[in-house]
From TrEMBL:
Pfam families: Gpr1_Fun34_YaaH. Its main location: membrane. This is Acetate uptake transporter. GO terms for biological process: succinate transmembrane transport. It is a multi-pass membrane protein. The keyword Zinc does not apply. The chain crosses the membrane at residues 28-48, 54-76, 88-109, 115-134, 141-161, 167-184. The lineage of its organism: Bacteria, Bacillati, Actinomycetota, Actinomycetes, Micrococcales. The keyword Mitochondrion does not apply. It is found in: Membrane. It comes from Microbacterium hominis. One of its GO terms (molecular function) is acetate:proton symporter activity. InterPro entries: Gpr1/Fun34/SatP-like, SatP. One of its GO terms (cellular component) is plasma membrane.
Length: 212
């Protein structure tokens, strides 16, 4: 079957194993893990719930699920998603460790150190955004929202400004909404061969892969 909007055969974009067997797209669980973990954390930051769910949901959906997606991307030969999902997957394994340390009183991470850690991943998201721009329009915008959200939360941590941290949380919720949007597109494209929602054109040339 061929996608009429791109004239690309579905079999050309469905990931395959080394033996040529069609396999599932790990991006499906990667996006799902990102959305669930990020929304849960930001609801806690905004005061709508406690940090208890952040520990468990962050570790499982943000950490284990995204790292799994990253490693499966490795076997699919997808370097971009291999590094993106692994980077933020391991981020989400470390963050629950911060929470656990605060709860039990061992290896407590200072607010300034936590802010530095957050700033580092803000800059990583910015770096990823340029490479993402060869795929479509929504993916780099999503990463730019992650960059802005984590950046504001980092600055808020350095300055003690809850307003900046709250603004960062809303930007990260917006990033989650965009990721959910991409998940809908990817799910229906992979399962039905139909484009359901537009992702927009790539900003730069450099990759024949139309997927997010």
């Amino acid at each position: 079957m061929t996608d009429p909007t791109t004239n690309i055969a579905i079999s050309d974009v469905v990931p395959k194993s080394g033996a040529g067997m069609r396999v599932a797209d790990p991006g499906l669980i990667g996006l799902l893990g990102f959305v669930i973990a990020t929304v849960t954390a930001q609801l806690a930051h905004l005061g709508f719930q406690t940090e208890g769910p952040v520990f468990w949901i962050g570790a499982v959906f943000g950490g284990i699920v995204q790292v799994t997606a990253g490693m499966l991307s490795y076997f699919a030969g997808d370097n971009f998603h291999f590094i993106v999902y692994n980077a933020f997957g391991w981020y989400w394994i470390v963050v629950p460790g911060f929470l656990l340390g605060e709860e039990v009183g061992i290896f407590i991470v200072a607010d300034s150190a936590h802010a530095v850690f957050t700033l580092a991943f803000s800059l990583i998201a910015l770096m990823f955004a340029f490479a993402a721009a060869i795929h479509n329009s929504v993916l780099p915008v999503t990463l730019l929202f992650v960059f802005g959200g984590l950046g504001l939360q980092s600055i808020g941590g350095f300055t003690g400004s809850p307003g900046l941290e709250s603004t960062g949380s809303w930007l990260l919720i917006a990033a989650s909404a965009l990721a959910a949007y991409m998940l809908v597109e990817k799910f229906y494209w992979r399962t039905t061969g139909r484009r359901t929602v537009p992702l927009g054109p790539p900003w730069f040339s450099g990759s024949p892969d139309p997927e997010s």
